[in-house]
Specification:
This protein is an alpha/beta fold. The chain is built from eleven helices and nine strands.
């Protein structure tokens, strides 16, 4: 299985074959996770450190569970109470951790590019669990796996991504991934939540929900990221839901077999109607959570495999 990367920092650096390699291996881990013995030894003897500089429930729990199911020694660092609060720089923290000789670092950070900077200072594999507005690669990969399992393919689908595009690293990673897999991407949202120059990514942009969602195979809703907003981006949540929230009337314009997605956490009655979110015939939101564990297991498996090969070669040259 070909995956020639030391780190997983973003979708931008991956080719279609890399994406397919992760998804194909993740399929095997879906089967493992649904069995009685949810355990493998792929990371046996390796140490995984989770460093979350931003609060997270789904992603951190998913990475922790993935590492433990692969047999790794997993440590979660409480970054809110770490030495960074005492003035230590990110680079000094990286060097300190590197001296402990970890094998995999999983990092979420509020600043774009911080994970890439850290990866340059350590001698282990680094996985980006979300950095600022930049990327969230494993979220895009789990979304891709969910879509592929539901629709039977990733190529040449009509995918509508709706909501707060400007502040969403999930949107950026999905745009990159789906574009590489030759799907047609439509972005829907108010102009205030649409990044400048976004059309350069080869997407279609709509500020009218009805026009953007028409005939879509996949409808991906995004959370309003109020923590990243420093001004009045929307008139009110009520008005936003009226124009851009997904309800039965708007969903009826999509393809009859369209699936509904959301990366979570959801704001019911703001981005999505609760009944749509819970509709077992249309919503794959719970499947996204399940696929997240399998995709992260696959990514860590492939990176650990490359790490072991690199270390073997270093020892052979010594």
């Amino acid at each position: 299985m070909s995956f020639a990367h030391r780190h997983l920092l973003g979708i931008e650096a991956l080719g279609p074959s890399d994406i397919t390699a992760i998804l194909d291996l993740a399929e095997k881990y879906v089967d493992l996770n649904r069995g009685e013995a949810k355990h493998s030894e792929e990371l046996a003897g390796l140490t995984q450190i989770n460093m979350f500089f931003e609060a997270s429930t789904r992603t951190q729990a998913s990475f922790e569970l993935a590492g433990k199911r692969l047999g790794a020694d997993v440590m979660n660092m409480a970054m809110q109470t770490s030495s960074l609060k005492k003035g230590e720089t990110l680079i000094d923290t990286a060097l300190t951790l590197n001296a402990m000789r970890p094998d995999l670092l999983v990092v979420r950070h509020p600043q774009s590019g911080a994970v890439d900077l850290l990866a340059q200072k350590v001698n282990c594999a680094v996985l980006n669990a979300g950095d600022g507005r930049h990327e969230h690669p494993t979220q895009a990969l789990l979304d891709a796996l969910t879509i592929r399992r539901a629709k039977g393919r990733l190529h040449r689908l009509n995918v509508a991504i709706c909501g707060d595009i400007a502040h969403s690293r999930v949107a950026r990673s999905n745009i990159l991934l789906l574009g590489k897999m030759e799907s047609r991407i439509r972005l829907i949202g108010p102009p205030t939540l649409m990044p400048a120059g976004i059309r350069e990514f080869g997407v279609e942009v709509f500020d009218d929900m009805a026009a953007g969602i028409e005939g879509a195979d996949v409808v991906m809703m995004l959370r309003l990221q109020k923590e990243r907003m420093d001004g009045g981006f929307i008139p009110s949540e009520r008005e936003y839901y009226h124009r851009y929230g997904l309800d039965a009337q708007k969903l009826a314009l999509a393809a009859p077999d369209a699936i509904v997605m959301h990366p979570g956490p959801m704001n019911r009655g703001v981005e999505i109607d609760g009944e749509i979110a819970d509709d077992i015939n249309r919503s794959v939101i719970q499947e996204q959570v399940e696929m997240g564990v399998a995709v992260r297991m696959a990514a860590m498996h492939l990176l650990a495999q490359n790490l072991r090969v690199a270390r073997f070669r270093e020892r052979a040259r010594a």
